[in-house]
Amino acid sequence: DAARWRLRGSWLVLFCTSALATFHQLVGVTLRTTDKIVWANEFEPIELTCLIESISTNNPRIEWKKIKNGVPSYVYFQNKISGDLEHRAQLREPANILIFNTSRSDTAEYRCEVAAIDDQRDFDEILISLAVRVKPVVPRCSVPETVTVGTSTELRCLENEGFPAPLYRWFHNNDELPQDPKNSPKFANSSYSINPDTGGLKFRRVRKEDAGEYYCQAKNDAGHAQCPPQMMEVCDVDILGIFLKCFCAVVVFLCLAASICHSLRRGCFHKKGHNENNYNWPAQSDGVDYGDADEGHFRHKSSFII
């Protein structure tokens, strides 16, 4: 009986193996990957997996293509690495691509293609999306040097190299400013607000306690960077300066008014009336009397000479 059971088991194993081989031959080449969306840090290695689940062909044709902005280009073709990954990648069994040091230019879609001419289904492909994280560089920070108590002001922070786009944090005297000042007893009376997406730090009303060193930090999944600390001074309202400015303005106004009054008294601005003549009649000669216009003739004077 034991021998018969062993014989039946051997036939069962042989049958399953033959059925599985026939199934593979009928189904053909089939591919899969461990991750269809892959993230990698810049300058670090990453492997794109293209696993062959079933195939009957001994030497299938394997190709990798990079698709960026809708334009495909070869990565692995005719058994060698090509394109911008040349000397930076290699093909690993069964059909994986290992990139030694990724760069931001490697962000794209990659397509693994396997052709098996002896299989019933002789072709399969799989698409993998690769996104390379880029560490932020030192952000550009703008901190006002002097601010007056009670006024509003804004501190700015900007970084445009990191990918994905970094989030921003602000520090005051090496203490991180919480997003909501009311959540911290130390900053509960402050009137600031932080925009972590744009890097803006706004004060509605500056207090004396807001003076000190400020710096900003830009951070994403690849790392972080921060700008050097910058000092912001907070000054009291200059009452004496405001009084002196007002006093000078009043003095100038009084001087101008006195000058106008003095000019009016001297008649510098006097104008002649509309009925006054501003021209002279020509002088008449002593020797001729033209007489009245209704006499129709003129009279000779003793000085008239014919």
Automatic annotation (TrEMBL):
Cleavable signal peptide: 1-21
Membrane topology term: Single-pass type I membrane protein
GO function term, MF aspect, one: protein homodimerization activity
Single GO cellular component term: protein complex involved in cell adhesion
InterPro entries linked: Ig-like_dom (IPR007110), Ig-like_dom_sf (IPR036179), Ig-like_fold (IPR013783), Ig_sub (IPR003599), Ig_sub2 (IPR003598), JAM-C (IPR042974)
One of the protein's GO biological processes: cell migration
Transmembrane segments: 239-261
Cell membrane found in the keyword field: yes
Ig-like domain mapped to chain residues: 44-129, 136-220
Primary localization class, coarse: other
Keywords, ordered alphabetically: Cell junction, Cell membrane, Disulfide bond, Immunoglobulin domain, Membrane, Signal, Tight junction, Transmembrane, Transmembrane helix
Subcellular localization(s) per the UniProt record: Cell junction, Tight junction; Cell membrane
Family note: Belongs to the immunoglobulin superfamily.
Protein name: Junctional adhesion molecule 3
Species whose genome carries this gene: Lates calcarifer
Gene (name only): JAM3
